[in-house]
Structures are given as C-alpha cells and as structure tokens.
Amino acid sequence: MIFSDKTYDEERALYGIKDSAVINCVFDGPADGESALKESRNIEVEACSFNLRYPFWHVIGASIKNVKMTSNCRAALWYDRDVVVFGSELHGIKALRECDATVIENCDIDSEEFGWRCRGIEIKNSTLNSQYPFFECSDMRVEALNMTGKYSFQYVENATIKNCVFKTKDAFWHAKNVTVYDSVIEGEYLAWYSENLRLVNCTVVGTQPFCYCKGLVLENCTMKNTDLSFENSFVEADIVGSIMSVKNPLGGYVRADSIDQLIWDDGHKEYSSCVITAKNGNVLEEISK
C-alpha cells in the first residue's frame, strides 16, 4: 500500500501498517496526535515532514530517507529494530533510544540525549549536536561523524570509531573495548575510568585526559594542552611531539618526544611501575609533592 501527498494529525494515524510506503506526507496539525507509525513493519518513508511526537516506536524494518523531524518531533525512534535513516534531519530531543541494528548515514542530528542504550548502531558521514550522546550503547561503528557534545560515549562498550572530529566536555567515561582511529578528540577529562580504550593516529586536546584507566593504549598519537595526564592509569602510550605534563601514572609506559613536566604526589613514585621516556631526553621539570 502507498500513502502519498497526505497530511496526518490524528492519534496513531498510520498505526501498524505493513509492507507499505509513505511518500511526501506531512505529520502535523491541530489534532496534535502522537505515535503516527507505531508498531509498523517493513515500511519505506521518504520525503516526509514530522512535527508531532513519537512517530517511530516499536517499528521493525524501516527505510527512512530524506525526512525532516523538527524540534517538536520528540523521542522519534524508540524500541525499533532494523531501521535505516538516510539523508534526514533529526532535530527532536531523545531522537533515538533502545534500538537494535540502526544505520544512520548522511544525517543532520540535533538531539540533546541522542542514541541512549542502543545496540548495533552504525553512524557515518553525519553531524551531531548533543548534550549527552550514546549513553550505554554497545556494538557501535562510527565513521566520519562531526560531533559537538558534552558528556559523550559514557559506558559505551565494543565500539570502533574512524575519521571523526569530536568537540566534547568529556568523552568515553567508563567505556570498555573501544578503538578510535584517525580522529580528533577535543575536550576535558577524557576517558576517565575506561577499560581497553585504544587510540591510533589520533589527536587529543584538553586538560587532564586518561585518568584511572586500565588497558589504555595510544599509538602514534598527538597530545595538545594535555596537562595532568594519565593519573592512576595503566597505559601504553607512544606520543608524537610533547606532553604538557604527566602525573602519577601507575603502570605500563609513556613515550613522547618531550615531556614538559612530570609530577609525583607523595608516595606515588615508589609504587608506580610506569616507565616514562622522553625520546629526546627532555623532561623539563620533575616535581614531587
């Protein structure tokens, strides 16, 4: 069945449709109805506009292309499975949550709590503005995402991230089994309490990164304005260029071209097994408190 060139504003306007296409339709109007496509199966939605709440809940099998979801389209995709979203605008708060096997490509996303507790999400070639994105997600693949956020990727598990730019207050707190390639991560207090976080050919910018980490690996990375790095962490780091300061690392090694400052609080140096090496022999200052 095809639904085309219509305007719907009633409650559950197309509830439970199956094996259908929805083309060039508008979901808006005075009835202010919710849940337009709830419980749908195997649907194609293209060139539609959504200005009402909760349109795609409990959907299984959907292709969503060139769709606009306004800021009034709250909590748009929840509890879905096998959904592809392409070339669309997702501008409502809590746009994606508790979904399985979601693919998002070439999308413009502005959603304060985006992607919470999703499993098997793939996102690429997209932009994202969010306060608290990807909370407790698992089995993620992220590529070419330009993201501005605050508390990003908290409690994420099993993720691969490539060619991204993240500007975030902090990221990857309590994350487990995450690998990041060829990306720029700019923020504060990055990756505290993470386990098995690996960064390859990345640039890290910001104060106090990588504290209380286990299994942390940095390969051929650059660190800028990164003071008080690696406190109470087990780390294997090979850094190109300088590190502003290293403080109280617990184990492993830190290698950089130069380290401006090495800081030990009382007693930490005695029980640390971390080997710290400035490749050109340049540790400008060592401080014990």
Find the structural class using helix and strand composition: mainly beta
Net shape: elongated
Q: CA-to-CA gap between the ends? A: 74 Å
Please tell me how large the radius of gyration is. 23 Å
> What's the pLDDT, averaged over the residues?
95
Description:
This protein is mostly beta strands. The protein is built from one helix and 28 strands. Helix content is 1%, strand content 54%. The strands form two sheets. It has an eight-stranded parallel beta barrel with strand order 17-18-20-22-24-23-21-19. Strands 7-10-13 form a three-stranded parallel β-sheet, with no helix packed on it. It has one helix at residues 268-271, and strands spanning 2-4, 7-8, 18-23, 26-27, 41-46, 49-50, 56-57, 60-65, 68-69, 77-78, 81-86, 89-90, 96-97, 100-105, 108-110, 122-129, 138-152, 157-162, 165-171, 176-181, 184-186, 195-200, 203-205, 216-224, 234-243, 246-247, 251-264, 275-288. Helix 1 (268-271) links the parallel strand 27 and strand 28 (275-288). The longest helix is centred in the last third of the chain and has 4 residues, at 268-271. The termini are far apart.
